[in-house]
UniProtKB/TrEMBL annotation:
SUPFAM superfamilies: Sigma3 and sigma4 domains of RNA polymerase sigma factors (SSF88659). InterPro entries: RNA_pol_sigma-70_dom, RNA_pol_sigma70_r4_t2, RNA_pol_sigma_r3/r4-like, WH-like_DNA-bd_sf. It comes from Gemmata obscuriglobus. Residues 140-191 form the RNA polymerase sigma factor 70 region 4 type domain. This is Sigma-70 family RNA polymerase sigma factor.
Length: 198
């Protein structure tokens, strides 16, 4: 599956984006931290971001979720670790800051994996076991019905049948989730009409 990753932002933009999001998400605690003059270094933010990306890759999380997961880790760090001590979270020692950082990564990773697992149980996704009781006539009928669909609609239904969730289909086809859902709905309606179901 082809994944499209956004172009890499500059370090200054990344630091501003991370801190801006974190501060906006947790104004009370963040405000107190800033008031005391605590501010993480740009190097600490960059190093933490890289470490997080490696964790998401190793955990096989979807690449389009990595930025959100990293933001969630920064928010949790901002709530629980003084910003000027963020440089200590990557030190190989048993500091409370490092333990909190590892807990944040683990919590975000597990939450993302659970969300993905629940999405896979959606009633819209088919059973992945192969269908063995189809006859040649059934397959021919489905192939004939599929001729009424546009190439994009056929591709969306093929990916759905393979168990792909809508957001990943949208990424694969370089379109929006809304567009995929709309095309999928239209394709199903065409097939239902063809078979006299609706």
């Amino acid at each position: 599956m082809t994944r499209y990753l956004p172009s890499k932002p500059s370090r200054g933009v990344m630091v501003a984006m991370v801190l801006g999001t974190a501060l906006a998400t947790s104004p009370a605690r963040a405000g107190a931290s800033v008031a005391r003059g605590a501010e993480p270094s740009a190097k600490a933010v960059t190093d933490i971001s890289k470490y997080c990306q490696t964790c998401w890759r190793n955990a096989r999380l979807p690449a389009d979720r990595w930025q959100d997961c990293t933001q969630a880790v920064f928010v949790r760090l901002l709530e629980r670790v003084e910003a000027d001590k963020w440089g200590a979270v990557l030190v190989d020692s048993e500091t409370s800051e490092r333990r909190e950082f590892l807990r944040a990564i683990d919590a975000v990773k597990k939450r993302t994996q659970r969300a993905r697992k629940f999405a896979a149980l959606s009633h819209e996704l088919p059973d992945r076991r192969p269908v063995t009781n189809t006859t040649r006539d059934d397959r021919d009928a489905v192939a004939k019905a599929a001729e009424q669909l546009s190439p994009r609609q056929r591709r969306i239904l093929e990916l759905t049948a393979d168990g792909w969730p809508v957001p990943e289909i949208a990424t694969e086809l370089a379109t929006t989730v809304e567009r995929v859902s709309d095309e999928k709905y239209k394709a199903i309606k065409k097939l239902q009409h063809h078979f006299g179901i609706a």
